[in-house]
Amino acid sequence: MDSNVPRLPLRNFFAGIAEYAFETRLGVADPPLIDYLVELLTRFVRSDAVYGVRDLQGRRLGMLADLLIEAESRVGDARRQVHRHIGDFTLFWAGVYPEALARLRSQGRGAHVRGDHFVDYCEHGKRSYRIASQIPTEQKNAEAENEVLERISDDFELCVYGLGEIRREWERREPGDKWRLVVVV
Q: So where are the chain's domains?
């Protein structure tokens, strides 16, 4: 954990908004699911987590098409982790910053972006969470995490909507509030 990131206060900020969005606004009382989404938001505040998967040459992979290829080239827990990251990556962008997807797809940043233009983020996110949930692992609490990953796969669109509600709520905060999030895309 990087000591420069105020993890606990930021996590508490996200937890309060996530609980409000999911439990009060959407009627979804699922603490393990909400906790997973809070951890996702807390991790993805840092761009090195959003773009944390690297290929064998050490290059960061930021295009969904490249991540999908990388996931299929790995085995075991490494494959599970990349599929889980694909799920997190697609859920984050589709839920929190959907406008960035259109911008990234339309910008001429090379052939990989043109390839992503035809990729359905939600379908690949759902599929990747499902795959990750089915790959055996020796990790602590793997069974509980697999259940959450499977639920996210089943309710991906609800999670996307819920993350959008979380963003709308943090944007409603007054300028003097303690936390103002600025993410550079």
A: 7-171
Name the pLDDT band for 173 (thresholds 50, 70, 90): confident
* Phi and psi at residue 155, to the nearest 5°: -115, 35
- What contacts 63, CB < 8 A, 6 or more positions away? 112, 113, 115, 116
3 state DSSP class of 72 = helix
Residues in the chain: 185
Q: Report the amino acid identity of residue 143.
A: E
Reported for 47-55, long-range contacts at CB under 8 A and 24+ positions apart, including other chains, are 47/184, 50/89, 50/92, 52/85, 53/82, 53/85
Q: What is the pTM of this model?
A: 0.84
Beta carbons of 157 and 75 less than 8 angstroms apart: no
